[in-house]
Amino acid sequence: MAPPPTLAAWRRVDRGRALADLTSEPVVVAPTDPCEAVDVGFRTRWTVSSVLVAPREPGGPHGLVARKDFLTTMTGRYGFGRSLWGRRPVAEVARWDAPRVPVSASLTEAAERLAQSDGYSDMVVLGPDDEPVGVLDPTTLMEALASELAHEASHDHLTGVPSRAWFVDGLRELCARAQRGEGAVVLAFVDLDRLKEVNDSLGHAAGDALLHSVAERLAAAALPGDVVGRLGGDEFALARLLEPQTAAAPWRSSALGLGETLRAALAASDPALPAAAHSRASVGLAVGAGPLVDSDRLLREADLAMYGAKKAGGDRVRLAGADLATADGRVPRQGRGDGARHDDDRGRAAEGSAWWGLEVHYQPIARTADGVAREVEALLRCRDDDGELGGPAEPLARAAAAGRALDLDLWVLAAACRDLAGWRATLGDRAPETVNVNLSPAALDEPLLADRVLRVLTEVRVAPGTVRLELSEAATDAQLARAQPALRELRAAGVPIALDDLGAAFGALRQVTRLPVDAVKIDREVVAHMLDDPVDALIVELVHRLAADRGLPVVAEGVETAEQVDALRAAGVPLMQGFHVARPMPPDALAAYLAR
After folding, report:
1. How far is CA 263 from CA 33, 154, 212, 317, 452, in A?
2. Which of 25, 293, 409, 516 has an alpha carbon within 20 to 30 A of 87's alpha carbon?
3. Most confident of 151-155, 293-297, 453-457
4. b or e along 222-246 (b: 16 or more beta carbons within 10 Å of the residue's beta carbon)?
5. Reported confidence tier of residue 576, pLDDT bands at 50, 70, 90
6. Which pLDDT band, with edges at 50, 70 and 90, does 8 fall under?
7. Mean pLDDT, to the nearest integer, of 305-316?
C-alpha cells in the first residue's frame, strides 16, 4: 500500500475531476470535406480519438467520426477502402447520434449517459450554449470515475481522512512487515473526551469543526509511512512501524512517546475553534511484533487501553500488554494470552481435514438465464468442539501467522479436485464444469506459487482448465504485482484466474486491465443494493461492459432475491451465486443437489 496522502489531498473541497479536465480539444471538419482529407489528418496531424463534423444544416447536431472505426473503413476489407471512400464527404461516415453530455455534468452522470447509449463510443461534450467544447474518451471517463469512487469509498466524508476500512488495510500491511521482522507495529487509538458535550452545548457544526481540527492535528503528527484514519464517531487511530528496538530505544518507550505526542497535540489550543469547542483525548496504545502480531488483536487491545485511560479520568495515555517480541525475536510468555496457541501449535501445516476441524463446502454458481448450476466455489469451513460450523477467518489467520497460508490453500485445492473427480464419476454430465478455489493474500507472496499449484493438479490428476483460482479482494496492489509472473505461468498452463469482489473497492476496477484474469465476480454488497442505489446499479453495468469488452465471464455474488436475478439478467450478467441459488453445502449434499 502506498503511503497515505497528505492532508491537503484529503481536504480538497472538490475531490472529483471536472469533466472539462478530461475532455480533449475538438477538431472540427466540414461535412463536405472528403474522407481522404480526414484520413490524412488522422494519420499525420491529429492525436484525438475522434473528430467532430460540423452540422449539415444550421441548428443541427454535430456528427462524430471515431479514429479507429474511420481508419478501418478507409483500409477496407480487401485494402480498397481509400479508393471507395476517399472522395466521398465525411458526413456519410459520421455518427450523428453520438452520446452527448453537458460539461457541467458529474462523472457519474456522464457514465450513466454512456451506459444508456448504444455501444462504447466517444461522447460529445457540450458547453452552456449547447455547442461542442470537446470530445470525451470513455476509457478516460471510466478511469476517472474509478478514481473518484475509490476516493469516496476509502475516505471519511466529514473529515477527509481515510475511513476505517482503508485504515485497517494499512494496519494489516504494517503487521505483515512486522511479521517479516522489520520492526514492531504501534497502534494509537484516540478518543475525544468532550465531543458529545460540544455537540450538545454548541451544536453539531461546532462538533464537526472539532473533528476537522483533530484530523488536521493527527495528520500533522504523522510521519511518512504512518497510517491515519477515523474509525467512527469521535474515534481516530494512527499506526506506525517502529524500527527494531535497542536497549536504548525499546518499543514500549517509543510507543509511549508517540501516545504522549498525540495527547499533547490534541490538548493544544486551535485558534480556528471557539474556546468551548476544544476537547482533550484519551489515547490507548498496543504494540505487536513477530509472527503472532495481528491487526484485529491490536485494535481490540488498543481500544481496551483507551477505555482504561478514559475511566481513569481522560486526557492520558495507557499502553496495553500486546504481543511484544524481545530483542532476540522470542515472544514473552505473558504475551500468549486470550487463548492463543503457542508457536509449535500454530506451525502445523494443513495435513488433513482434522487440522482445526476444517471442512470444504461448496456453493453452486448458476446461469442467470435458466438457473442451471455449471460451476461451484469451494469454501473453507471450521467446525468447533461442539460441532457448530463457522467461517474460515480463524484458521486462515492462524495459517497466515504461521507462514502456512499457501499450505492451507493447497489443501483446499486438493480436496476440491478430489471431490470434482468424484462428482464426475457419479454424475457424469451433471457434474460441475469448473470449481473455483480461493487464493489467500499471503499465498501470493510465495515464490513457488505456480509450481506448487500445478504439482497438486498433477497429483490429483485434474485438468488445469477445470479449476479457477480466485484472487482475494484483500490482496494489496504490491502482492498482486509480485504475483503476476506466477499468475501468468498458471494461465499459460491452462489454469484460469478470477478477480473476486469487484466493486467493493472501486480502485480494483483498474485491476481488470492490469492483471492476467479470465473472469470477474461482482461484490455481494454491490448486488445487495443495486435495486435501490443508482451507483451500485451503475457499477454492475460498468463491470459487465468492462468484462464483455474483454470477453470475460461475470459472476454476481450474494444474489438473494428473484428481483436481483431479473435485474442481473437485464444487465447482461450471465452467472450468479448466492442464497437464491443455494447455500454452501458439503460434497455429498452438493452431489444430491446437482442430481436433482
Report:
1. 71, 26, 16, 7, 50
2. 25
3. 453-457
4. beeebbbbbbeebbbbbbbbbeebe
5. very high
6. very low
7. 87
Cα dist. 525→118, 145, 521 in Å? 28, 19, 12
How far is residue 582's CA from residue 186's CA, in Å, rounded to a whole number?
Answer: 43
Q: What pLDDT does residue 465 have?
A: 92
Q: What is the pLDDT of residue 346?
A: 27
pLDDT at 339: 30
DSSP string, 559-595: --SHHHHHHHHHHT--EE-STTT---B-HHHHHHHHH
Cell of 344: 509449535
- In which residue are the cell numbers 502480531 written? 293
Average pLDDT over residues 514-520: 85
Orientation angle between helical segments 477-492 and 449-460, nearest 10 degrees: 40
Q: Return the exposure string of 378-393: e unless at least 16 CB atoms fall within 10 Å of the residue's CB, then b.
A: bbbbbeeeeeeeeebe
pLDDT of 331 above 60: no
β-bridge pairing 281-289 and 317-319: parallel
> Is 282 buried (19+), middle (13-18) or exposed (0-12) by CB count in 10 A?
buried
| Residue 466 CB neighbours (<10 A) | 21
In the 3-class helix/strand/coil scheme, how is 405-464 assigned residue by residue? Answer: HHHHHHHHHHHHHHHHHHHHHHHHHHCCCEEEEEECHHHHHCCCHHHHHHHHHHHHCCCH
Q: What is the pLDDT of residue 466?
A: 94
Cβ-defined contacts of 504-509 (< 8 Å, 24+): 504/473, 505/150, 505/153, 505/154, 505/473, 506/146, 506/149, 506/150, 506/152, 506/153, 506/539, 507/146, 507/147, 507/150, 507/154, 508/473, 509/142, 509/146, 509/542, 509/543, 509/546
The predicted-structure confidence for 348-378, as pLDDT tens digits, reads as follows 333 333 234 688 999 999 999 999 999 999 9
**Pick from 186, 192, 229, 184: nearest CA to 210:** 192
Output the CA torsion sign for 243, 245, 249, 250.
positive
78 phi and psi angles, rounded to 5 deg: -115, 15
Q: Cell 487491545 belongs to which residue?
A: 301
Among all chains, which residue has been given the C-alpha cell 478470477?
498
Model confidence pLDDT, tens digit, residues 486-516 = 999 999 999 999 988 775 555 556 667 778 8
Give CA separation, 79 vs 33, 42, 71, 166, in Å: 22, 18, 11, 54
